[in-house]
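Input sequence (446 aa), recorded before submission:
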Amino acid sequence: MAQEKLVILGAGESGQGAALLGKAKGYEVFVSDGKPLNEKARTLFEQHQIDFEEAGHDLSRLVDADIAVKSPGIPDTAVVVQTLLNHGVEVISEIEWGFRFTEKPIIAITGSNGKTTTTSMIHKLLVDAGISAGLGGNIGKSFAAQVMGEEPDYYVLEVSSFQLDGTTQFQPHIAVITNITPDHLDRYNYKFEAYIASKMSITRSQTAQDFLVYDHDDPVLTQSIGAVPVKANLMPYTTKTKVGQGSYIDHNSLIINTPENSINMPTLDLSVQGAHNQKNAMAAATVGALLNIRKETIRQSLEHFQSVEHRLEYVLKINNVTYINDSKATNVNSVYYALESMHAPTVWIVGGEDKGNDYNELLPLVNEKVKAIICLGLDNDKIIETFGSVVDMLVETHSMPDAVQVAYRLAERGDTVLLSPACASFDLFENYEDRGRQFKNAVRQL
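Predicted structure, token format:
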């Protein structure tokens, strides 16, 4: 029988892992990247004798594949993807590819905001409880690459809507949805419904033996769960009401009821900033209860959790001005959380590649908390239009050192300088990590 042909689109971390897994499973693997490969990828493919092309796609060769795994960064509308689909080639994500070769239970976390923090909390909780757990998806190592080695007892995966779009069989034992707010609408024809459907697909293949943990206080989420057939056990968490099965806060206690047990513990004293992290911790605690982790372990693990880099990360205090790096805030809702947690007059650095943002919901918070806005992007018209008349001072800059210098001049003792861009970083930076690191470097050089 002829060897099955696997095509990998994109040679990043997930593409490399998918290629190695394909090779290990006996596929004839061909990696195709529209951009030039970096040294690490090229060396890896040569070492494992994996065929590849770079800086373009040979479509006539690609359509010969039996299956294709694409990078989450490549939209379904891309010519290369459409060509494969038109030739009957199944195109899936690395998450789906890895899932097809593992029997281990998966805890998968998605949501517009909070998913990185929640994923990190859950992973730490399992490790603290002595459970071996792989961390993958949007953070950690490639999931597909982990499936090849000696496998952990559980996988904890942060999954984006783009990764979910390429799944058909993916079935997490525990799925977590932190919230759903408009984001990445440029990838969904500016249709919020299409983005919601993408997020909800995390529960599509779940059965009555599985669990869906979700924020009951998020109206979009609660409505969506009521509108689609969900077979999984529902485990809502809420700070506003009491629930039978799930988690809620009663006075100073966190109550978690699962089908197997009930936990009552003092509300968590969180080291991380911002009220929204209470929700992330409740989601993590609910997962811990479902896995029968002791309540002492849950409490200690979550209370000692360190905030994720680039998410409301304290950088330095200079002349009694606090500098905070929230570069990971690439949408309006993330910025809402960030501004909500500011307790001092704020100089806000915002801007980048707009993803169809509507800034109006930020107006009350900007009015209340922001004394000056520094735009950092190539096209700031929408920001200027929305906030120009709301703040006394609005300055345009085109590099991180400039933005930080202007902030340094505008901020007075007791103020906070907040980088929370609300936009993608690709106009001036490689990615949000690069943007966050440049901010921290510029602050340290003041």
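Checked by second reader. The chain has a mean pLDDT of 92.
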